């Protein structure tokens, strides 16, 4: 029974890590940018859901929809205002541009967090769970309904994103742009729109994770920081090149982390994510499901 | 002859003027005939902003009230407030600015122990009186220390209060500790473990819980496997709430005792459900719950001067310190100096701690003014002051 409890919590935590990691991977694959502000998209979406549901009194489902739209819009705005001007500045040179963009995401992380502290900084916030019944019992095993929702939504969203990339025109354009930007531009793809859409989609992944996690944790401006690290670890473990791989990476992390804490040392749970990142980068930098890419020089 | 005599007289006069000016300046830092300048340091922005303004305002309201009633010995209190963001370098910079540039008479500050600890050396070197605002680490006030005072329960003492309380119940024999491992929590563990053992209780060990924990399943299951009679929870509010929720979910049904890092009303609001709180007890600084008569004067004062502030436990953490400062300023008299202030503080005995459960008593070699608190618990869904024995 204890194993099943740990497994259910580990899988749901892993789904959250996977979703956050997925958002990181989408942006990284499109533009080669590690988005350090991704945790803040996680946080901002949770607060958007809270605002819609608690402050404006919208229904739960509508609030979630509003928060997802907000996440998409925030991702697009961030790309358009803070990333694109630097990416388009050819005078910097490639290396300087990459450094400037990374610093820009770090700046965004601090700025979004700081802005969030203005209205939210000094009070406790809590988003209610999606279901009024907080737990269900299955054969003596107590399961959190919110955690079950996390698992279902994460699986569905990951499959939907995989299908989006393989079946839809926009998804194929995104893949084409990430594989060869110059080539995509030559065949008439508006890469600016593609980057905006990618940031929007990535923000949805982080935002959905934030909305789903919010009832389990509490809403505060720093809530995304820890999740960013877990998302990075999931992306490293699964491999930055694979949507499914990142999701599995998150699941493995969530499960191993909680079993490690229960049967070895809870004190080590906090440093598990950075250890994963270091070990993977040292011994299998392409991740569990990624493949080494050859560069012709 | 006449000329050289005049020169000597002039030189002596100038030397005497410079010397007396220096003395006067040294004696009058932060003082005018009508004002006493006090520097306050708090975590007004950043992750610990939750504690920032509420604790500052809880002290400020006392100074506001004194000013509204004519001040102390003809002088009104003028405050200069700086933000530490709960970071040591910023706290140190703030203290340096307040002492050197603003030339405050004394300091009243410190929201985070780790941030304010480095300020201690500066304060002692500059011989500036300081009242700790809400930082709890014992080291801040530990001897040798001629200038820093604290008028609320220090960090290590709540462990002793909890252990003594648990020992009054014949049913509670085995105790496990669950807690954060940051500086604020770490100062509490040695005395807690010592007190548990001194009360002939079985100490089952410490189970770490991350400060930013979002899940405590592993900790709860591990604690359950140890089969304790009671859990002592030394964790910040967020982590405490996560632990209590998971404990209720996973059927850990034993009394839980929280340190002064948490407040029952705040936990209740965070969790939003009284069920996980059913077994919860905490050490409290205060005489009574915020809704009972002993706290009415302080709640009214807060509403009067800061009507937009939330009436919460954190609002009054700094109040007793301000009361001690005011009392010492009165006793030091109109011919005020820093040394007289320190002496006056050291002579305070059995002063009413205002909202605090303790009476404030200082001595020249003991600047911890408040060493008692009481246990509060949830009884029939209500926050109830339990005193010092199991009910």
TrEMBL record, chain A:
A single GO molecular function term of this UniProt record: transmembrane transporter activity
InterPro entries per the UniProt record, alphabetical: ABC_transp_permease, BCAA_transport_permease
BP GO terms, sorted: amino acid transport
Superkingdom per UniProt: Bacteria
Cellular component annotations (GO), alphabetically ordered: plasma membrane
Keyword list, A-Z: Amino-acid transport, Cell membrane, Membrane, Transmembrane, Transmembrane helix, Transport
Keyword Cell membrane set for record: yes
Subcellular location: Cell membrane
Predominant subcellular localization, coarse grouping: membrane
Segments passing through the bilayer: 6-29, 64-83, 95-116, 148-165, 201-220, 232-256, 262-283
Its membrane topology: Multi-pass membrane protein
Record-linked PANTHER family: AMINO ACID ABC TRANSPORTER PERMEASE PROTEIN (PTHR11795:SF445), BRANCHED-CHAIN AMINO ACID TRANSPORT SYSTEM PERMEASE PROTEIN LIVH (PTHR11795)
Similarity comment text for this entry: Belongs to the binding-protein-dependent transport system permease family. LivHM subfamily.
UniProt-recorded name of the protein: Branched-chain amino acid ABC transporter permease
Automatic annotation (TrEMBL), chain B:
Family annotation (CDD domains): PBP1_ABC_ligand_binding-like
Any GO BP: amino acid transport
UniProt xrefs under InterPro entries: Leu-bd, Leu_Ile_Val-bd, Peripla_BP_I
Keyword Transport: yes
Leucine-binding protein domain boundaries: 35-368
Keywords: Amino-acid transport, Signal, Transport
Signal peptide: 1-26
Family according to the record: Belongs to the leucine-binding protein family.
Protein name: ABC transporter substrate-binding protein
Source organism: Oryzicola mucosus
Phylogenetic placement of the source organism: Bacteria, Pseudomonadati, Pseudomonadota, Alphaproteobacteria, Hyphomicrobiales
